[in-house]
Amino acid sequence: MSKWYAKLFHFLGFLECMYALEIYHRYTGILPITYGGKWKYLTYINLNVKALCFSLFVLDDVLGYLCRSAPSLQGMKDSVCKFKSVFYTTVALPASMMVFVMFWSLFLIDRELVYPKSFDQHFPSWANHLWHSTILTVLLEAACIKHPYPSKTTSLIITNTGGLLYLVWILWVEKVGGVVIYPFLAQLHGFEFVLFVLTEFAFIQLLFNFGKLLNHLSGGTTNHKLETTKKAT
């Protein structure tokens, strides 16, 4: 993907993320507020993760343009570039794929587990797809623009820590707030729950590896400066 098209893609991706969040707030505003608010839902967290990710992409593009006339900003641009690649490869890409696969898998098995039919009278179907199906922008980024990945150990720590924190968070919400976010989890006990958690972490790693492979096979542009810095260290 040429630099011009990449910048346009990042800007449009940013607008899509902002629109998805605005629609989410508009339609979910009618729902009663319970413990944890919107932040207990993985869908909402992922929408914000995507928004932050594309904000970093746009910021990096803007700094790249400003550095032409203000070389003193190069250090800031390098830091933003490194952080956005780490954030994208270890958090945004795996999380977006996770939301898409998990939501639609459970939806097809029994939609009452994740998106009850009663929601249809409050949320239009296109809004549901906007929140749960629009991972295309995230995948296109991986397919068209190469991002240097951190070390295997670092990637493993960041990705799995994110999954662990969310697991602890939803268990806390259930225990303290009495809110069961995902009804199917309440049906799992003892060994079943442990097996589910281990399977989920294995699945997260599988999605991470898929994203890494997709990015590796990409014929897109690479941030050579960052790659050079990484190799030098």
Automatic annotation (TrEMBL):
InterPro entries: ADTRP_AIG1. The chain crosses the membrane at residues 44-66, 86-109, 153-172, 184-208. It catalyses: 9-(9Z-hexadecenoyloxy)-octadecanoate + H2O = (9Z)-hexadecenoate + 9-hydroxy-octadecanoate + H(+); 9-octadecanoyloxy-octadecanoate + H2O = 9-hydroxy-octadecanoate + octadecanoate + H(+); 12-hexadecanoyloxy-octadecanoate + H2O = 12-hydroxyoctadecanoate + hexadecanoate + H(+); 13-(9Z-octadecenoyloxy)-octadecanoate + H2O = 13-hydroxy-octadecanoate + (9Z)-octadecenoate + H(+). It is found in: Endomembrane system. Its main location: membrane. PANTHER family: ANDROGEN-INDUCED PROTEIN 1-RELATED, AT02829P-RELATED. This is Androgen-induced gene 1 protein-like. The gene is Aig1-002.
